[in-house]
Known about the structure:
The chain is mostly beta strands. The protein has one domain. It is built from three helices and 14 strands. It has helices at 15-22, 29-32, 69-80, and strands spanning 2-4, 11-13, 39-51, 57-64, 66-67, 87-89, 96-98, 108-112, 149-150, 152-154, 160-167, 176-183, 192-202, 207-216. The strands form three sheets. Strands 1, 2, 3, 4, 10, 11 and 14 form a seven-stranded mixed sheet that branches. Strands 5-13-12-8-9 form a five-stranded antiparallel sheet. A two-stranded antiparallel ribbon has the order 6-7. The longest helix has 12 residues, at 69-80. It is globular, with a radius of gyration of 18 Å. The chain starts with a strand and ends with a strand.
Amino acid sequence: MTRFNQSGREEFITKELLDEVMSSDHLGAKAFKTMKDEVKVRGELEIDLIHADSGELHDRVIVDNLVVTIGRRIMRSMLAGLAGGPVIISTPGGPVTITAMSEIYITRMNWGIAGHDPGTPTQPLPGTPDPSDDDLYTVLPVAPGHSGKAVVTSYPTTESIRFTASLLTTEANGYGISEEGLWTDEVPHDLMFAHTTFGLLTKSASFTFEFRHTILF
Protein backbone atom coordinates (compact mmCIF):
# COMPACT_ATOMS: atom_id res chain seq x y z
CA MET A 1 0.00 0.00 0.00
CA THR A 2 1.26 3.46 -0.87
CA ARG A 3 0.04 6.71 0.62
CA PHE A 4 0.92 10.26 -0.40
CA ASN A 5 0.30 12.62 2.52
CA GLN A 6 0.01 16.13 1.08
CA SER A 7 -0.03 18.79 3.78
CA GLY A 8 -2.64 21.48 3.68
CA ARG A 9 -5.06 19.53 1.52
CA GLU A 10 -8.06 20.03 3.80
CA GLU A 11 -10.02 22.68 1.97
CA PHE A 12 -12.54 25.16 3.30
CA ILE A 13 -15.58 27.06 2.25
CA THR A 14 -14.26 30.46 3.25
CA LYS A 15 -16.03 33.19 5.19
CA GLU A 16 -16.07 35.31 2.03
CA LEU A 17 -18.03 32.65 0.16
CA LEU A 18 -20.46 32.29 3.07
CA ASP A 19 -20.92 36.04 3.22
CA GLU A 20 -21.74 36.09 -0.49
CA VAL A 21 -24.45 33.48 -0.03
CA MET A 22 -25.82 35.03 3.16
CA SER A 23 -26.30 38.34 1.35
CA SER A 24 -28.39 36.65 -1.35
CA ASP A 25 -32.13 36.01 -1.43
CA HIS A 26 -31.70 32.30 -2.16
CA LEU A 27 -33.48 29.75 0.00
CA GLY A 28 -30.91 28.30 2.37
CA ALA A 29 -29.08 31.57 3.07
CA LYS A 30 -30.73 31.71 6.50
CA ALA A 31 -29.42 28.24 7.26
CA PHE A 32 -25.92 29.37 6.34
CA LYS A 33 -26.11 32.05 9.03
CA THR A 34 -26.17 29.37 11.71
CA MET A 35 -23.02 27.67 10.42
CA LYS A 36 -19.45 28.26 11.58
CA ASP A 37 -17.24 30.60 9.57
CA GLU A 38 -15.43 27.64 8.03
CA VAL A 39 -16.85 24.30 6.89
CA LYS A 40 -14.22 21.63 6.49
CA VAL A 41 -14.30 19.51 3.33
CA ARG A 42 -11.83 16.68 2.97
CA GLY A 43 -11.45 13.35 1.31
CA GLU A 44 -9.20 10.91 -0.46
CA LEU A 45 -8.69 8.94 -3.64
CA GLU A 46 -8.05 5.20 -3.43
CA ILE A 47 -6.58 3.49 -6.49
CA ASP A 48 -6.63 -0.31 -6.65
CA LEU A 49 -4.39 -2.09 -9.17
CA ILE A 50 -6.17 -5.38 -9.82
CA HIS A 51 -4.63 -8.33 -11.67
CA ALA A 52 -6.56 -9.09 -14.85
CA ASP A 53 -6.04 -12.83 -14.68
CA SER A 54 -6.74 -13.51 -11.00
CA GLY A 55 -8.76 -10.51 -9.88
CA GLU A 56 -6.41 -10.17 -6.91
CA LEU A 57 -5.27 -6.84 -5.53
CA HIS A 58 -1.71 -6.01 -6.61
CA ASP A 59 -1.33 -2.62 -4.93
CA ARG A 60 -3.39 0.19 -3.45
CA VAL A 61 -2.47 3.88 -3.64
CA ILE A 62 -4.17 6.39 -1.33
CA VAL A 63 -3.82 10.11 -1.96
CA ASP A 64 -5.41 13.19 -0.43
CA ASN A 65 -8.21 14.86 -2.35
CA LEU A 66 -8.53 18.56 -3.17
CA VAL A 67 -11.93 20.15 -3.74
CA VAL A 68 -10.99 23.05 -6.02
CA THR A 69 -12.43 26.55 -5.77
CA ILE A 70 -15.06 25.85 -8.44
CA GLY A 71 -16.05 22.73 -6.49
CA ARG A 72 -16.59 24.75 -3.32
CA ARG A 73 -18.75 27.18 -5.28
CA ILE A 74 -20.76 24.24 -6.60
CA MET A 75 -21.32 23.08 -3.00
CA ARG A 76 -22.38 26.57 -2.00
CA SER A 77 -24.91 26.62 -4.82
CA MET A 78 -26.30 23.24 -3.82
CA LEU A 79 -26.85 24.49 -0.27
CA ALA A 80 -28.41 27.77 -1.36
CA GLY A 81 -30.75 26.23 -3.92
CA LEU A 82 -32.57 27.94 -6.79
CA ALA A 83 -35.63 29.31 -5.02
CA GLY A 84 -34.38 32.84 -5.66
CA GLY A 85 -33.71 32.19 -9.33
CA PRO A 86 -30.68 31.02 -11.32
CA VAL A 87 -27.32 30.86 -9.55
CA ILE A 88 -24.15 32.25 -11.12
CA ILE A 89 -20.85 30.45 -10.47
CA SER A 90 -17.63 32.32 -11.23
CA THR A 91 -15.06 30.30 -13.21
CA PRO A 92 -11.77 31.22 -14.93
CA GLY A 93 -13.62 30.96 -18.24
CA GLY A 94 -16.30 33.40 -17.13
CA PRO A 95 -19.58 33.25 -15.18
CA VAL A 96 -21.70 30.10 -15.48
CA THR A 97 -25.45 30.35 -14.94
CA ILE A 98 -27.07 27.38 -13.20
CA THR A 99 -30.77 26.98 -13.96
CA ALA A 100 -31.26 23.44 -12.60
CA MET A 101 -29.46 21.67 -9.77
CA SER A 102 -28.89 18.63 -12.01
CA GLU A 103 -26.46 20.77 -14.03
CA ILE A 104 -23.92 20.65 -11.19
CA TYR A 105 -24.22 17.06 -10.04
CA ILE A 106 -20.97 15.08 -10.19
CA THR A 107 -21.41 12.51 -12.94
CA ARG A 108 -17.94 11.84 -14.41
CA MET A 109 -14.36 10.95 -13.57
CA ASN A 110 -11.45 11.48 -15.92
CA TRP A 111 -7.70 11.07 -15.88
CA GLY A 112 -4.51 12.84 -16.86
CA ILE A 113 -0.82 12.18 -17.37
CA ALA A 114 0.98 15.26 -15.93
CA GLY A 115 0.36 15.10 -12.18
CA HIS A 116 3.73 13.53 -11.28
CA ASP A 117 7.14 15.05 -10.62
CA PRO A 118 9.25 14.54 -13.79
CA GLY A 119 12.41 14.35 -11.67
CA THR A 120 10.89 11.84 -9.23
CA PRO A 121 8.03 10.14 -11.12
CA THR A 122 6.92 8.14 -8.08
CA GLN A 123 5.89 11.39 -6.38
CA PRO A 124 3.15 13.93 -7.22
CA LEU A 125 4.19 17.19 -8.86
CA PRO A 126 5.19 19.57 -6.03
CA GLY A 127 2.61 22.23 -5.24
CA THR A 128 -0.22 20.33 -6.88
CA PRO A 129 -3.10 20.21 -7.09
CA ASP A 130 -3.95 23.88 -6.70
CA PRO A 131 -7.31 25.34 -5.60
CA SER A 132 -7.44 27.42 -8.80
CA ASP A 133 -7.26 24.34 -11.06
CA ASP A 134 -10.19 24.12 -13.46
CA ASP A 135 -8.88 21.30 -15.67
CA LEU A 136 -6.44 18.42 -15.63
CA TYR A 137 -2.87 19.48 -16.47
CA THR A 138 -2.73 17.08 -19.44
CA VAL A 139 -5.79 14.98 -20.15
CA LEU A 140 -5.34 11.33 -21.13
CA PRO A 141 -4.88 11.55 -24.92
CA VAL A 142 -6.73 8.32 -25.68
CA ALA A 143 -10.18 7.03 -24.77
CA PRO A 144 -11.91 7.79 -22.48
CA GLY A 145 -10.16 11.17 -22.88
CA HIS A 146 -11.74 14.35 -21.56
CA SER A 147 -15.22 12.84 -21.58
CA GLY A 148 -14.04 10.40 -18.94
CA LYS A 149 -16.35 7.73 -17.58
CA ALA A 150 -19.61 7.79 -15.67
CA VAL A 151 -19.20 7.35 -11.93
CA VAL A 152 -21.04 4.96 -9.65
CA THR A 153 -22.18 6.82 -6.53
CA SER A 154 -22.35 5.27 -3.07
CA TYR A 155 -22.50 6.40 0.57
CA PRO A 156 -19.95 4.46 2.65
CA THR A 157 -20.79 6.40 5.84
CA THR A 158 -23.43 8.88 6.97
CA GLU A 159 -20.93 11.70 6.41
CA SER A 160 -19.34 10.77 3.10
CA ILE A 161 -20.07 10.19 -0.57
CA ARG A 162 -17.98 8.04 -2.92
CA PHE A 163 -17.57 8.17 -6.69
CA THR A 164 -16.13 5.07 -8.39
CA ALA A 165 -14.91 4.44 -11.94
CA SER A 166 -12.34 2.13 -13.53
CA LEU A 167 -9.85 1.98 -16.37
CA LEU A 168 -10.30 -1.54 -17.76
CA THR A 169 -7.65 -3.87 -19.18
CA THR A 170 -8.34 -2.57 -22.70
CA GLU A 171 -8.09 1.13 -21.79
CA ALA A 172 -5.18 3.62 -21.65
CA ASN A 173 -2.51 0.91 -21.93
CA GLY A 174 1.03 2.24 -22.18
CA TYR A 175 0.19 5.56 -20.56
CA GLY A 176 1.36 6.80 -17.18
CA ILE A 177 -1.63 7.95 -15.13
CA SER A 178 -0.87 10.58 -12.48
CA GLU A 179 -3.95 12.76 -12.04
CA GLU A 180 -7.70 12.35 -11.66
CA GLY A 181 -10.67 14.68 -11.54
CA LEU A 182 -14.38 14.66 -10.69
CA TRP A 183 -16.63 16.53 -13.11
CA THR A 184 -20.17 17.61 -13.82
CA ASP A 185 -21.77 16.67 -17.15
CA GLU A 186 -19.97 18.01 -20.23
CA VAL A 187 -23.26 19.64 -21.26
CA PRO A 188 -24.11 22.28 -20.33
CA HIS A 189 -21.18 23.35 -18.14
CA ASP A 190 -18.29 20.81 -17.90
CA LEU A 191 -17.01 21.90 -14.45
CA MET A 192 -14.25 20.19 -12.46
CA PHE A 193 -15.22 19.67 -8.81
CA ALA A 194 -12.07 18.03 -7.43
CA HIS A 195 -8.52 17.34 -8.62
CA THR A 196 -5.98 14.82 -7.36
CA THR A 197 -2.34 14.26 -8.35
CA PHE A 198 -0.13 11.29 -7.48
CA GLY A 199 2.99 9.36 -8.49
CA LEU A 200 3.07 7.86 -11.97
CA LEU A 201 1.12 4.60 -12.42
CA THR A 202 1.76 2.93 -15.78
CA LYS A 203 -1.36 1.31 -17.19
CA SER A 204 -1.12 -2.06 -18.95
CA ALA A 205 -3.43 -4.82 -20.10
CA SER A 206 -2.35 -6.83 -17.06
CA PHE A 207 -4.31 -4.60 -14.70
CA THR A 208 -7.60 -2.88 -14.11
CA PHE A 209 -7.26 0.40 -12.24
CA GLU A 210 -10.22 1.05 -9.94
CA PHE A 211 -10.54 4.61 -8.61
CA ARG A 212 -12.66 5.39 -5.53
CA HIS A 213 -12.89 9.11 -4.80
CA THR A 214 -14.48 9.81 -1.42
CA ILE A 215 -15.58 13.22 -0.13
CA LEU A 216 -16.08 13.53 3.64
CA PHE A 217 -17.99 16.23 5.50
